[in-house]
Amino acid sequence: MRKLYSIAIWILIVLNGIPARGSETRDDRLSPLTPERRETIRRADSIMRIVIRKATEYENTVSEYDARIYTKGRTEILRQNILIRLAPHIIPVDWKNKDMLFEMVSQSTYTSPNHYTHNLEAVNGNSIPDGKKQEEVLAFLNLNVYSPTVYNDAIFMPIAENAFDHYAFNLESSEEVQGYTIYKISFLPKQWSQKLACGYLYIVDQVWSIDRIDINGRYSFAEFNLAMSYGRDSSQFILPTQADLFLRYKVLGNTIVSTYHSSFQYQRVKRIETASARHSRRASLDLTSYAQISADTIPIVKDPAFWAEHRDLPLMPEEEALYQMVGAKEGKGTDTTENNLRRYVKLTKQLTNTVNMDFKSTRIKYSGLLNPFQLGYSARNGITYKQAFRVRKLFDRDRQIRFNPEVGYVFKRKQLFFKIRGEWEYLPQRMGTLSLEVANDNESYSSEITDRINEELRDSTFNFEDLDLEYFKHYYAELKNDIELSNGFLLTTGISYHRRIPTKRQAAINPGEDVTEILNQEYNDFVPAIGISYTPRQYYRMDGYKKEYVYSYYPTLSIEFAKAIPGIGESTGDYARIEADIHQSLMLGLCRRLNYHVSGGLYTRQRSTYFADFKYFARRNFPETWDDQIGGVFNLLKGEWYNASDKYVQAHLMYESPFVLFKILRINSKRKFLRMVSRYILSERFYLSQLWTPMLPSYTEIGYGIGNHLFNIAAFASFDRWEYQGMGFKFAFELFQ
User: Fold this and answer.
1) Longest alpha-carbon distance in the chain
2) Are residues 680 and 673 in contact, defined by beta-carbon separation less than 8 angstroms?
3) What is the dihedral angle through the alpha carbons of 131, 136, 140, 141, rounded to the nearest 10 degrees?
4) Fewer CB within 10 Å, N side or C side of the chain?
5) Which of 602, 566, 576, 610 is nearest to 447 (CA)?
6) What's the CA gap between 176 and 182, in Å, rounded?
7) What is the pLDDT of residue 10?
8) Who contacts 605 (Cβ-Cβ below 8 Å, separation ≥6)?
9) How far is it, in rounded angstroms, from Cα 59 to Cα 277?
10) Is the pLDDT reported for residue 711 higher than 80?
11) Is residue 65 within 8 Å of residue 266, measured between CB atoms?
12) Nearest residue to 26 (alpha-carbon basis) of 11, 12, 37, 10
């Protein structure tokens, strides 16, 4: 055991700590280091240390503002193939329009750190942008240049407190502009990562604010360049005045380019004047951060005078030509063939895409009957296919009713699973939710069968494959209430009713008369439960009245107690279950983290037949998303072992970093294809999981995975008492989960 853990830890240390052959350091990037170059580096470092120190002050200087934003956008499909129809799944693009031009005016309000509301006042173009297209540009514009990270922590900024660990700076030039001395400083990553960027910072002398930023990087599937200028006078100090954004997407063999130009006119700016108030804002646990786009209808305005008034730059001749083409098309009718083609395309889209429908305060979402993103694969279950339907009805103060039925099929086990869940979120600011769930679960076997297995295990020739142990079908209904008692402290109470029906299948061997009698009985359990979960200093976001937890620097502790009560609704169960869990995500630097997850449980007061179905130690049937702890479960453990003991202890470790094997591959590989593939890998993960039960004293899994915004995939190897058992893979689409 110790040897295996030591090997895993040393692999991580070696891969992360020793530079790969041919890797570039700062001196390599800037060589030859002449005396003049050394001096420009020294001066750049001196300036950036002051800028980084000032950034913590400027980050929260502005309290609120109102601004009118004009935006002009253009999207061109430069290269396309038949897979362009799948591109809208991944990026905002209208594949039917090869050259799209639009303009929009929005009234924007900033009320707290990274909290923006954009009210669309007017839109025009040769094709009206949908919500995703509107969000694309506004998401890039919602950038606080003084924050350590931007775009939901996707990009690590060169003004972060530990920026010198990841960036090299050089003073390129200085110039006098309107009485200000402006320094032009370049920044380059010391090692490649999609989390890092390169470009130029223009710094105002003495004030040490950012006058302009010109940044290049990768975000999701796009290569981007953002050039943003900031105000110098007191009314617009450190606020953006103009922005130009360039995006190049390369997806599924298609190349799409989008360009945006925006200008800002401020009507109201409120500042935080005292250092104590700024510190208080930084110390707050409230990380509310979202951009909301609001408009009852899309306000299409075609009046040329209106747009001439709001543009800060006139349209280019080719852009004028695109508008003229729209007028020509509007004068022509549409033939029957084109109408039929559009109907066919719409039907195909409804079958293969996620379907979203909004009607007033009701939102409906359907996964799509033939949607390939609902497929998954794991070594234990084989191919899985899932369908999901979501209905949400909103009420005042963000209260809502949700109805979420799901159905899925596991091909390898030939089992159909269903779940019908309804939720009433009655107090969103306190995470108060009342839910009712009716579903089926994995087939299992009772404690009497467990006892028989325990006896058989004394014989070294016993093998689970000798028995057909999935004897009971499991159906349940659960009524549960969740409520936040204080920030980070959650209380869960619930009542569940379980019904287990024998499958009456023939076993591969005769288990004996006494076991056969057990197999023909039905079991019903009435189980009240209470649980608490506590996370110290829990950071959170507020989306209107709705509260959402984000992260904490402390572990989350959970405990649940359940007691089966006989005599209610023909229930016979009389036992108790206790489980506890602790988990945490430890940040180890730029985009590196270590997750640990430890839990244990046992059945006690066993006065009747029971079924060992634990909450934290359970078999999962469908691959989850990358962020839903793909490493927090056992991926190759046989299903029989989940029910074979009345107690367990498990531990999972997951290490994530973008700078491990693919960094070495990118630097050292001479194959262009491998170097290209490595650019699309956002992170790599290493897994180590350990299980103890009385019947399985030592079970271990190790694994390695890669992932991005589209998919995640991992390979695992299993060891039973340090003997190699086998290897398997797990795959799931990240999109639409």
Assistant:
1) 98
2) no
3) -40
4) N
5) 610
6) 6
7) 35
8) 563, 574, 575, 576
9) 12
10) no
11) yes
12) 37
